[in-house]
Amino acid sequence: MTASSPEEKAIVERISTIARAKLLEMSSSIALKRAGKSQAAVAMVASQRGRIMMDQVRRLITTQLNSLAQRRVELRAEITASLQYNTVLGLGASMASFVIICFSIVVAASSLSQRAEATTQAELLAETNAMHAHSAVRRATYLSATAQMLQSIDSIKAPAELSHVLPIFMSKLLPNTSGQVYLYGNSRDFLEMKAYWGSKDLGASLLAPSDCWGLRLGKIHHSTPTDLCCEHTDADDSAKTQFCVPMMSQGDVVGLLVVTDITNDSALIDQDIVATLAEQLALAINNVLLRDSLRQQSTIDPLTGLYNRRYFDETLRRELIRAQRSQTSCSVIMIDLDHFKRINDTYGHDAGDLVLENVSRKIVGCVRASDVVCRYGGEELVVVLPDCTVEAAAVCAEKIRQSLAEISIHHLGQHISGITASFGISSCPSHGERNDEILKAADRALYIAKNNGRDQVLIAEPYGEKVVVLSSRARST
């Protein structure tokens, strides 16, 4: 038996002492009985000493039990209080944990929401940047193609080359479209198609200014199947979206740009881009037309439409160099109309101009496309024949001489016919390799032809001491 206090220890020791004394008495009585001393044993039992000790033990045990019971009650109370405290503490901890968990959930949800929002913003920003990058790439591609187109247009030599340059770049600048570029003719009564991309069938070859609402209004005209459509629009094309943009440069309308959306989705075409493109084309094409006009003024004789002497000098020099490099022949035919002064004096200078015009057309009709016919001065004409021997040039000259007899002009009630000319022929390398050598040889032959009676074809030296006379109408008659 254990004790938790000094009093309990004393009681326990007292019980142990009395219990040992009781056991000792019982052992003594038993020993006396066994020793045959029954009277002594009875007397010991009758003395009530053992009973007294047992009563003491019972009282002590009862006291100890009561103390233990009280202790149990106190312990139970302590345990109950402890349980209540622990319960309250657990509930408090649970509430605190719940609050912490809820707060953590709220914080986590807020953090996740912020992250989701940040992710959404990042995605939107990425999409915006991608759109800007794509737009920048498209703009850079457009500007690059536009610059290349303008550079190519600036490098062309004649307006006819527009039909080769424009389709290449317009298909890149305006994809999924078909279109035409029209330019005014010299009379400005109609516009002629100079270039197209996509389907040529979607546009007319010629159109009058009144056929287009863009030209009538003087601004870009956007037409859909339900809008006012231009008369130059093809019937099969009436269901498509079309832009007609007048191309204006320095206040004048140069031509017309027509753009047709072949996908029928007008959202794919930026009207501002089409308008800007038409403006750039107008400036570039106007420069081409201006250069061509200046070139014609500097190289074309206004009366006959033939090349002038300046162009002849450049061409002859170039062709002689080419002939020397390729070791081929290059011939020159000098032509002088016979008695031209008499025509001017008899019929007037207007009639003389008509004679020059008709003679020029006859000569152009008798030569090759590679040959160059020029007005050398006054009534004197000259033909450069690249890659042509002197004999072949003489045949060509004879053909021209015979065709002049076919000229018949009626002017102010007067009839002009019997036009003749004298021809002098020289060739490289037979008569020299420089411009002046070739021209002097042909001019000498022409001079001799004039002195020998005119209306004849002569080849210059070195075919002997004398100039060779190939043909003469005067001799044949």
Give a quick summary of the entry:
The chain has 477 residues and is of the alpha+beta class.
Provide keyphrases for this structure.
477 residues, alpha+beta, 6-stranded antiparallel sheet, 6-stranded mixed sheet, 12 helices, 17% strand, rod-shaped, disordered C terminus
The protein's oligomeric status is single chain
Helix content percent band: 55-70%
Supply the helix-strand structural class: alpha+beta
Please summarize the sheet with the most strands: 6 strands, antiparallel
Radius of gyration over C-alpha positions, nearest whole angstrom: 64 Å
Could you give the topology of this structure?
Blueprint: H1 6-34, H2 38-46, H3 49-155, H4 162-173, E1 177-184, E2 191-197, E3 206-207, H5 213-217, E4 221-223, E5 241-249, E6 252-261, H6 271-299, H7 309-326, E7 330-337, H8 340-347, H9 349-366, E8 372-377, E9 380-386, H10 390-404, E10 409-411, E11 414-416, E12 421-428, H11 435-451, E13 456-459, E14 468-472, H12 473-476
Parallel strand pairs: 12-13
Antiparallel strand pairs: 1-2, 1-6, 2-3, 4-5, 5-6, 7-9, 7-12, 8-9, 10-11, 13-14
Helix pairs in contact: 1-2, 1-3, 3-4, 3-6, 8-9, 9-10
